[in-house]
Amino acid sequence: MTEPYPTDPLQAVTHPDPYPYYAELRMQTPLFKDAATGLWVAARHDMVHAVLGDERLTVRPSTEPVPRAIAGQPAGEVFGRLARMNEGDAHRIARRSLVKALSAVDAETVFQSARTHAVALIERAGTPANDAGVLDALAFALPVRVVAELIGMPADDSLEASVRHFVACLSPASSPEALRGAHEAAMQLQTRLFALTQRSPAASAFVERMVAGGLEPGADLPNPLVANLLGLFSQTFDATAGLVGNSIVTLTREHGLAEHLIATPSDIHPFVHEVARYDPPVHNTRRFAREAVEIEGLALQPGDAVLVLLAAASRDSAAFENADRFVLDRRRDGLPGFGAGRHACPGETIAQAIAAGITMALVAARFDFSNPALHWTYRASLNGRIPKFTFTEGNPQ
After folding, report:
1. How far apart are CA 5 and CA 121, in angstroms?
2. Which regions in the chain score pLDDT beneath 50?
3. Average pLDDT over the chain, rounded to whole?
4. Is 227 exposed, middle or buried (0-12, 13-18, 19+ CB in 10 A)?
5. Do residues 1 and 368 make contact, with C-beta atoms less than 8 angstroms apart?
6. Staple partner for 323: which of 129, 173, 317, 363, CB 3.0–4.6 Å?
7. How many helices (H) and strands (E) would you count in the chain?
8. CATH of domain 9-391
């Protein structure tokens, strides 16, 4: 049975196939107001880039730099210091520091690390023919372990649980109970990361580069260095899980691709890059007018919010030839799903390397992507498209 169209752009994120709806939104004026949400919407590729590059539009409303639900609490203290969550001088220093540290990371080393960890996890579990728990661990727990390895932090089974709890503070839909868990996780993670930053000599070359970029180790908590190390985990968590999950979904739908990757394993990198365009893990982000702004002849008032549809831009035929087709050998242009402008994701290359390593391990293990018992829905989210897999009788969607 065909699913009804989404009723608004926020519902589209978890719809089985939102892309025809996004195509309709691109046909509207470059910037339009959505009646259901009250948000201005940018769906076309050119307008998405224009909005993301406009310095009059900020990543948080000027009247609420930290969400009210977590302000003054441990998770809010971390949030307020994250490089990608605000516009102050300290945040610019933090962004510069992250870019410096991440740009020096060897993506091939990250790929091989992710693949090695994924192979070990799969071998411990046995052939993951019908185990959704294995897929969940590959998507969520394993990237956390790789990031911990990257920054020189010992990883254990509790780390993924702490990151999962902390990420709840980033969702406006989180319950009070989930937010309490996020605050506890924020304190636990900061304590572990603080110990890492106090080691002399530095725990890793990565931490050294963060410090060289301008983030000095603080003598107390909270501090920007610890907060932005924590941010590496939280910003990796859902986005990389979505990229891994959407890679699995793509391999179930694009028949023959898994066999092609077995024969030509080097194509795993263009494969994941194209997944990140074709079915990106992050479907939207927001920008807020800090002053009266005119865009395309439309007047935005201070505080007005713009919903930036990254996934709609990813399928815009004005930017990508045959945009609605999965093309493995497509030229590897910039990806809207990782943002643009001053708040573009600095970890794009690392996220793709982790997802490629995990996906290649599944392919090499001869995971049955055509298994008719494999089903998926999408985890509740206003921004991220993250499959949740189950194995039941019947045909995959």
Report:
1. 38
2. 1, 395-397
3. 92
4. buried
5. no
6. 317
7. 16, 9
8. 1.10.630.10
